[in-house]
Please model this.
Amino acid sequence: MSPPRLNVSDKKLPNLIVKYDKASTLTTSQGVQIPDNHHSLRAGPRGPTLMEDFVLREKLMHFDHERIPERVVHARGAAAHGFFKVYKPLSQYTSADFLQNPAVETPVFVRFSTAVGSRGSADTVRDVRGFAVKFYTQQGNYDLVGNNMPVYFIQDAIKFPDLMHALKPEPHHEMPQASSAHDTFWDFVSLMPESTHMLMWLMSDRAIPRSYRMMEGFGVHTFRLVNPHGQTSFVKFHWKPKLGLHSMAWDEAQKVSGQDPDFHRRDLWEAIESGHFPEWELGVQLVEMGKVAELGIDILDATKLIPEELVPILPIGRMVLNRNPDNFFAETEQVAFNPGHLVPGIDFSNDPLLQGRLFSYADSQLSRMGSPNFQALPINRPACPMHHFQRDGLQQTSARHERVAYEPNTLGTGAEFRVDGSTQGFHSSPEALVSLKSRQQSASFDDHFSQPTLFWNSQSQAEKDHIVGAFRFDLSNVKTKEIRQRAVDNLAHVDMKLATRVAAQLGIDLPDPAAAAGRLGYRHHEAKAALQDAPSLSMMGRYKPDISTRKIAVLVADGMDMISVKRVMQELTDAGLQCKVVAPHLGHIGTASGRTLAVDFTFSNTSSVMFDAILLPGGEACADELCRLGSAVHFALEAYKHCKPICAINEGVRLLSSLGFSVSEQKDTALTVPTPGVVIADSQKAIEGQISQEFISAMLQHRHWDRVNLDSVPA
Ligand code: HDE
Model:
């Protein structure tokens, strides 16, 4: 059942739905009724089709033109409607109207995306995710077009086409799809040391999120807030997910790509349909104009971040996504974000990457949607009044009943459109600019390694291991040995141990930082590090006490002991978790006490990667059957290998016996190997409800990355 729709969105945003009732008859686009939609007009039952069949021609013509070009980057995405509410007035910092009144709900439309893959590519590839928010404010649309990582590959927009040409599939055979693990990407970035910081993020678990609902978002660039007195401060925007920050295991992400390429899209859709509305808190890092130099970080360089330890994040409001789009194409595909869509009170900085984006987005949308009238599409037009003298153009749909389309005028209403410039409207914040025209950048942009090193030093051991694994995976797919060597030589400037570990599996020489320093594109400006490590850069411990909607697979066969698992399942369900029964066949299985249990999935139509945790009930016959079934044993071992919480009751533990887990003959609790996130109990303990809380605590951590010897697990 669909959740109730929030009035705010319906009231202020145009309703897109075209409804047909049962009495509607099928017509052509001209409204002519069609009595036969199954047979084209022919010269006799076996004769040729006639040109005059306008019903057939119109239908085929429209179908032939259904597709528009996909986005050149961020083609694959999913979106939702919702609202944003500020916590308290921010007039001290900005005059933006939507950031003043805590009682006002500003409608938003948010599109999440991958950056590299084409529109039909899989969701769980290793990639940066787009996090684009359109606020329909009463002063016009404001777009915060960010990513789930706070930095970017390059510093200057002029390099963007090269970066994307290197990262996208190689042009001769158009492979690989949605992957950085190939020669041209590493060829380019290994010659572009400024990309090192972003590469560290891309090789980290941030690039394989568990869900769009569990990602942070960043505006990346520095922007400016301007208050009603014209005073400005620099600002960086941050979105923090209510469900915490969580990722997948790399092996899991790859398998999910095959099992369910729509994994993230489906997750977002289902959460909203079931009323579990995803939520984020918006925060800002504010830097007074006069305090920028003290930071020691170039805030105009998009390969740098400001650690929260240096400038704390001020939470300013919350965003809730509570409505799925009515139509994917009309909304998600046609929505046109643009970092140049500003409202009064927010302004750009001189970040050269941002400045280039200000040209690119509208240009890109013009190419995709064919005419400047894409701005008037329901999903793109503002929710506030809009008056301008733009006219005509391909597919103009508004027919204005007026004589003049110019300003000033006396024949129409032109003069009245003007606002009182002293108090209203958008003003670019004044900035004195006196400099020589040149193709130069500030020397501080040449500090390429201090922040990647800070990032590396801030990671936990498990995260470091994952980063090493990701570099090895990507680079081992690079066929050209010299490119592998160059990439690793660059890494030596981040951390020698990291570079040496990565190099170990690549059939190359030991990393040589001096070799990197001699290469084209290498410029180095040693920056004084303000911090040795910044815990805020690690994902560890960023879980939140909300695990609702997580999925638990309950592995069963005939003879399962329902009595001991019943309470656990009930308590998990009460905690908002979804228990799904996986069995050798669909229909029902028989329990040890003679009852039946309905089955949701079989071992052949799902796998462990579709779940967050597993529950293994007891029962002699059930355990015997599952242990004989390779796919069931694999299911359990794979969940273990992906560090997922596991709860086993009595004989259920036999599925894990190859890992050394068992319960004693007396059926006492006996955990032979103390392992994080594995809860083993006897029936009595389960019946008394002692284990649900333990299992839920294990789930609160999401994944137990500190499990050891995972390489030896046969899954
Ligand atoms: Fe984009 N980017 N980008 N980008 N970008 C596009 O715009 C571009 C950059 C981002 O869900 C395109 O309408 C240039 C940074 C998102 O519809 C295009 C540069 C960040 C989305 C474009 C960048 C982003 C896009 C493709 C370097 C994070 C998807 C279609 C100067 C702050 C928005 C389109 C959606 C989409 C250009 C770099 C985020 C081609 C030239 C940095 C989330 O215009």
Summary: The chain has a mean pLDDT of 93. The first helix runs from residue 7 to 12.
